[in-house]
Amino acid sequence: MAQSGTVQQPRISGQIIINELVRNMELGRLELGYSILVPCIFSVYLHPDDYARVASVESIIQEDAKRALTARLAGWNAKGGLLRRGGERKTYRTASSTWWIGLFADGESSVPPGDVEIHSELNEIAQPGYRGTKTTLIERAPSVTSARVARDREHTRLRSAAVFAEIRYQDDSGSQTFLVTQNEVSIGRGGDDQWVDLALYTTDQISREHLRLHRDPAAGAFTITDLSRNGTWLNGRRLAGNVSVPLPDRAEISLAEAVTLSFEVRRD
Q1: Is 53 helix (H, G, I), strand (E, B) or coil?
Q2: Per residue in 208-232, is it b (16+ CB within 10 Å) or e — as a string?
Q3: pTM for the full model?
Q4: Could you report the per-residue pLDDT of 35-59, keeping only the tens digit for each?
Q5: Contact 167, 180 (CB under 8 A)
Q6: Nearest CA to 39 among 91, 96, 84?
Q7: Are 29 and 36 in contact (CB under 8 A)?
Q8: Residue 129's pLDDT band (boundaries 50, 70, 90)?
Q9: Largest CB tally within 10 Å, which of 67, 108, 199, 214?
């Protein structure tokens, strides 16, 4: 005879959240004349019980989600992007050089247990004529208000990590700025099986992981290590491979003489 008891509620998992972030990015694509923009800012709402379960590993979920989004973007471009009239292909890209993902507990009783509601935007400033993308795991209308999304994003950014340095560069996606907020940054073309923090859209003269920057948390000083086939130049001097050398507070870094990074430490 079947035992009576409490019906077990569906439970959210990190993989479900990541899968839904990728799906939201796919649905939120905006086709332009020469490129296709995808969302890079995501607000993720969970039932309070689900949020309590994953809060302690939120940073790991965010890290894995960024890797999954980057890999999907790279996969689309590896296939040649979208063919446009005239034989050229449109490149998939983001308006920012980094992903932003915030996880929040829904206190308005609008997200059921086991579900996830995601709101995304193409950039920090909403694009004219683009209303953002809202998705849920369960088939229902997203119910978190835009005012709540804006408030939660701002609240999270006020508690965000400090910016240690910035890297300005230009590749096939245009002029970009990458904010360094971690103590180690890998840079290169990346790929489905090669994660990099700063992914460059450029010639294959750039290695998939071309170089790595490391910051000493105690001293705040950076070092640079060349990991490439075709070389890295620091202020005009070629670096020896696989050797960490001090990185000045301001420096020009040339990757295979194909892409130049302008590096500058922030002293806020």
Answers
A1: helix
A2: bbbbbbebeeeeeebebbbbbeebb
A3: 0.59
A4: 888 999 999 999 999 999 999 999 9
A5: yes
A6: 96
A7: yes
A8: low
A9: 199
- Cα 159 to the center of its chain, rounded Å: 18
Q: Do domains 14-158 and 165-265 have the same CATH topology?
A: no
List pLDDT tens digits, range 89-115. Answer: 778 888 887 899 999 999 888 999 999
Q: For CA atoms 169, 171, 175, 176, give the dihedral sign.
A: negative
∠ CA 170-171-176 to the nearest 5 degrees?
Answer: 45
> Cα separation of 97 and 252, whole Å?
19
Number of neighbours of residue 161 by Cβ within 10 angstroms? 8
For residue 20, how far is the Cα from the chain centroid? 15
- Domain spanning 14-158, CATH class: alpha beta
d(CA 117, CA 148): 13
- Between the CA of residue 83 and those of 25, 35, 74, 91, 167, what are the distances in Å? 20, 10, 16, 9, 31
Q: How many CA atoms lie within 13 A of 22 on its CB side?
A: 19
Domain ranges of the chain: 14-158, 165-265
CA atoms within 13 A on the CB side of 43: 26
Amino acid code (one letter) for 63: E
The pLDDT tens digits for 21-35 are 999 999 998 887 778
Query: Where would I find the beta strands (DSSP E) of the chain?
Result: 30-31, 35-37, 41-46, 82-83, 89-93, 100-105, 116-121, 133-136, 165-171, 174-180, 184-188, 198-199, 211-215, 222-226, 232-234, 237-238, 244-247, 250-255, 259-265
**CATH class of the 165-265 domain in this structure:** mainly beta
Q: H/E element holding 129?
A: none
Q: Token match 């009576």: residue?
A: 4
